[in-house]
Write a structure and sequence with these properties.
Helix content: 25-40%
Pfam families: DUF711
Largest sheet: 8 strands, mixed
Number of helices: 12
Protein name: DUF711 family protein
Structural class: alpha/beta
Radius of gyration: 19 Å
Strand order of the largest sheet: 7-6-1-2-3-4-5-9
InterPro entries: UCP027893 (IPR014537), UPF0210 (IPR007841)
CATH architecture: Alpha-Beta Barrel
Distance between the termini: 37 Å
Number of strands: 12
């Protein structure tokens, strides 16, 4: 088990306070903490993106920042790509609530450089989301707080998920006390990182992706995660669902590569509360992206859960290479 993200949610744009939190995070030397993060609030209309970017020291190497959270009708979305190019520690999200704004959002994602697209997510939901998972994690709260997420897929597969969540919750509470901020809880999502595969867990329960029964298996895993949290008095925050980011799971990439897992299969799984279409390489196609977002709005409306999307625009050559992830196969769309 590792703490996938120890995230401080900062409720205002105070540079001195942000620097103080950066210093405290940098002082943490704990091998169980994989990433340290700072999330800022939904972006005010009267504050320029450049001024927000200036709050972050350019020499910060250990910490990543979820800086920008814009509504889909905000014209400043056009500025995001340029700012994200200046610092690979910066992440951003766009909140999409209305179908009539889908075209502008899908055109924006279409325009992104593939590497930049891994640091931009579209959130389909009623409001910005309080989660340690980036890019969508925002400080949509009234007081400075700490929340965490956990990398524990292997432990869960071995029947040790209960122990992992208990230990993670204790770690999160400890750092909240150290930082003198409110402790929010744990995003109990089951998420992968390469060989620590969530796809392996689903296949262990219901057969190869994609097979009949996979959707019910995902549904069952989510129920079990919430039962574990409830039994151990752990407060779930954020997504708290099975996550299937394709480019972060070796088995998922293998299934995409051999074409047993295609885009319609992945979208079907999201009906059973997989957090959304995440880190999926899809051939650059404006009309296709537009339709994917429309379908995702329909799914989110029915499941009534936050739904995140990260599409990596790719060339149609079969693969795309992204620093930090390696070679990612393009998913077939039919």
């Amino acid at each position: 088990m590792k703490i996938r993200a120890l995230t401080i949610f900062v409720t205002n744009f105070d540079k001195n306070k942000i620097n103080d939190y950066i210093q405290k995070l940098e002082e943490i030397k704990d091998e169980k903490i994989w990433t340290k993060r700072i999330a800022l609030p939904p972006t005010p209309r009267d504050l320029s993106l450049d001024k927000i970017a200036d709050l972050i020291p350019i020499d910060s190497k250990e910490i990543i920042f979820s800086l920008f959270h814009l509504k889909s009708n905000d014209n400043r979305i056009k500025e995001l790509a340029g700012i994200l190019h200046t610092n690979d520690k910066i992440y951003a999200s766009v909140l999409l609530k209305r179908p009539e704004e889908t075209k502008d959002v899908s055109d924006f994602i279409y325009s992104l450089d593939p590497e930049i697209s891994t640091r931009v997510a579209v959130l389909i939901y009623d409001d910005f989301l309080l989660t340690p998972y980036f890019p969508v994690g925002s400080a949509n709260t009234i007081t400075d707080s700490i929340g965490i997420s956990v990398l524990f897929a292997n432990d869960y597969l071995q029947g040790k998920g209960n122990i992992s969540l208990i230990n993670a919750n204790e770690i999160g509470a400890k750092y909240a006390k150290d930082f003198k901020v409110r402790y929010l809880g744990v995003d109990i999502s089951l998420s992968p990182w390469m060989t620590e595969s969530v796809a392996d867990i689903i296949e262990n329960k219901s057969g190869k992706l994609f097979s009949p029964g996979n959707t019910f298996a995902v549904f069952g895993i989510n129920k079990e995660l919430f039962n574990l949290a409830w039994q151990n008095k752990i407060k779930p925050i954020g997504f708290s669902e099975v996550m299937l980011p394709v480019a972060e799971d070796i088995t998922l990439m293998k299934r995409v590569e051999e074409e047993s897992l295609r885009l319609p299969h992945l979208q079907q799984l999201t009906f059973a509360c997989v957090a959304g279409l995440d880190m999926v390489a899809i051939t650059r196609d404006k009309d296709l992206y537009y339709k994917i977002f429309l379908d995702s709005i329909a799914i989110q409306f029915n499941k009534r859960r936050p739904y995140g999307i990260r599409i990596i625009p790719s060339t149609g050559s079969g693969y795309i290479f992204i620093n930090g992830y390696g070679k990612i196969p393009e998913i077939k769309t039919v």
